[in-house]
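We emphasize that the prediction below concerns an isolated chain of 79 residues; any contacts that depend on oligomerization or on bound cofactors are therefore not represented. The input was used exactly as deposited, without trimming of termini.
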Amino acid sequence: MMTTSTDGQQPAEKLTDGAYGALRASAALRAGTSILITNEQGKVLVQKGGDSDTGCTYHIGPRGGCSPGAAELYALVRW
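Result of the prediction step, given as a token string:
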């Protein structure tokens, strides 16, 4: 049986393993949005990133995670 707590407080309730797994899965899902931005020449706006552990590089477009109840546009504006 798993328990959850916040900020050093005692757990409010005991969860079964199945309920704890469902809670973790629901927290792992997050709505997001992305957009393709081009200029008049057809060039696409991307950000270059990399993984220091593997040395791989990648390019990604504007995107952002949406907070519950927030408009998708605000996720892109924060990018």
